[in-house]
Amino acid sequence: MSVKMPQSNSEQNEMQDLQPDARSPRRDFIEKILIVVLFALVLFVLWQGAEVFLLIFAGFLLAIFLRALSGFLSRHAPLSENQALAVVLLVIAGLTALGIWLLTDSMQNQFDELSNQLPEAFEQARQKILQYPLGRRVIERIPSPQQIVNNQSGNLFGRVTGIFSTAFNVVVNVLIVLMTAVYLAFSPQSYKEGVIKLVPKDREKRAREVLYTIEFTLRRYLVGTVVSVTINGAITGLGLWFLGIPFAIPLAIVTAIFNFIPNIGPLAASVPAILIAFPLSPTKALYVALLYLAVQNIDGFLTTPLVQQRAVSIPPVLIIAAQLLLAVPIVAVVFVLVKMLYAEDILGRRVEVKGERQARAET
Fold first, then answer.
1. What are the Cα distances from residue 269, in Å, to 233, 279, 284, 292?
2. How far is it, in rounded angstroms, from Cα 22 to Cα 324?
3. Distance between CA 109 and CA 103 in Å, rounded?
4. pLDDT averaged per 10 residues, the chain (length 363)
5. pTM to 2 decimals?
6. Of 136, 233, 245, 276, which residue is 20 to 30 A from 318 by alpha carbon distance?
């Protein structure tokens, strides 16, 4: 009959160390489930507050753009990054005011000319349409300007109020984006640290890598966007010059700037060019409209998908779909999160993410 000798405390500790941690796989599984649930919860919250989120995200993008400019200036001038940022903001404000003043001055003369010629051009077009039987039927069904005024006069106050309300909302949204960008640009580190404090200590390094990679991706997206809008501006300027439209270069610059605004930007940029072309000839105004339509389609289906595919590694089909939802940079961020937090951390796969290698070197 054998007698078991009692084990010392040191021997018991060694035996415990040799035994596998039975709770470890379970803990890992729970962590993975929590990450997926948290990600779904974040998407749900963002969906419910989509408008606010888009404004904040636009401010975040603008802040990255401003920091990129100020970083370049501080590296080539004896200025700190915040001093360089102040200089960048002053230069942008000055150039914006100068551009508005020059464009408004020229547009005022063109608009006066247009207001004088538009009724005559409308009447000429009407007479040409009346030459055809189908055209006469269409004209008969269109109410006269006097009828339109009489029908809408009762609701005039409501329409004016609606216009002012829309304009006020636009101004407020622009201010939200601008102020968000300025605050984020002047002290980005404090906001990063605030996000990092929301994760466990053993995950802080990974959180820094993810945030750095997101910033890297959005910087590349902005570079790709600058390339795309420059191409659009150049094509538009050449087209306007070929058509003999005055102020071709300023209009091309306006087009490039407005192309930073998805979908509605190119439409808004075409209005000044069409107004300037109309007094020259209604036909030229039509050609200008077709030019802007062609450039917009080239950008949407060719330039932007190919440029952004190289910049942020998103397939062109997804970029085209994302443009319809005004969400190319958001898709770029989601791609980074899915690759790093899901494919790499949860599935354990090795996935190439642009900027991750630099993030590991920085953090």
1. 10, 18, 16, 9
2. 49
3. 10
4. 49 47 62 71 69 83 90 88 91 85 67 62 66 68 56 54 70 88 90 85 87 90 91 92 86 85 79 81 86 90 90 86 74 86 82 79 74
5. 0.70
6. 233
